[in-house]
Amino acid sequence: MKIALLTKTDASDKLVRLTDAGWTIVHLGNEPLVATVISSEANVIVADAILKIGPDIIDNMPELKLIHSQGVAFNAIDIEAARNAGVFVCNCAGANAKPVAEHAVMMMLAILKSMRYNEDMVYSNRQMEAKSACFNVGLPELYGRKVGIVGYGAIGKALGAVLKAFGCQLCYYDKIKVDPTVDDIEYMPLNELYASCDIVSLHAPVTPETEHMVNSDTLKLFKRGAILINTARGELMDQDAVAAALISGQLGGLGADTLSPEPYPPDNPLISGLPEEVRRYVVLSPHIAGITAGFFVRAYERIISNIEAVGRGDRPECIVNGL
Predict the structure, then answer these.
(1) How far apart (Å, rounded) are the C-alpha atoms in residues 214 and 190?
(2) Which of 115, 134, 146, 228 is 20 to 30 A from 51 (CA-CA)?
(3) pLDDT for the residue numbered 237
(4) Domain 97-284: top CATH class
């Protein structure tokens, strides 16, 4: 049995349990051209979450039984083509919930406390000027803020648990409502959530329904000066519209761990299109929220378990293509 690792770094050392059991592992990297070099004999693909796996790969692999995202996202995998071929598509749902929640809170605090601007002031020997400005206006607190969580899966629930400790008011939107007696959080229709929250945090998957769910029309619904956090996927927001809302003041800040496309081009409007006085209220990171040592331990336990299940002829866990 053969595994094709389509990942940036060779994770063979994390799969020793499988090689000891007789599986062959080939690391091919995560460049788009891997489609031309994957062995047609491979039974499993473990893929970088941003690498496109389309029919050009799936239909040329008659022995393929499983495509496993190395992460949580699976929108780059053609799940319909996989389903038609009888190939399971699985992800590592929940494995990165706590670190992504931590990252989202870090971004909220960095924006509220003007961390980038105040740090720059310290490095330019203007510490007392910065401190005096904070005395004059008073820094905002996360405590008491109303935070809307869009997408109440594992990450959304982990974020809610952390924000409760900060004393935030919480609400959520998701297609699936939770039992309010179990999760003490208010459900809101999406447009009402946008209109009532001080901070909106996106944790939805990319689907035809959610792509550009934050756009020029929906941004008009936001409270003026609200903060947008996106640790999910760049495709969830129209980046030109978000940049315009930041410049106009309709948005009071942005924290984004993901932009679109990846790698981020230098002409992305959120990188090159913001004046410096707006940029100080923007926190960007290079899609690292879930990349922690603990995540990789949890993710590869899931991946190994699912590969073993498929090898036995059993159903794996966290199937996302309805097979």
Answers:
(1) 11
(2) 228
(3) 97
(4) alpha beta
Active-site residue identified among 68, 103, 203, 287: 287
How confident is the model over 256-271, as pLDDT tens digits?
999 999 889 999 999 9
State the pTM of this model. 0.86
Asked if 287 is an active-site residue, the reply is yes
Structural domain spans, the chain: 2-95+292-312, 97-284
Q: How far is 7 from 31, CA to CA, in rounded Å?
A: 9
Angle, in degrees to the nearest 10, between helices 127-137 and 115-123: 150
The CATH T-level fold of domain 2-95+292-312 is Rossmann fold (3.40.50)
Catalytic-role residue among 262, 301, 308, 317: 262
Contact 283, 44 (CB under 8 A): no
Q: Which amino acid is at 81?
A: A
pLDDT in tens, 195-226: 999 999 999 988 899 999 999 999 999 999 99
- Euclidean distance between CA atoms 138 and 113, whole angstroms: 10
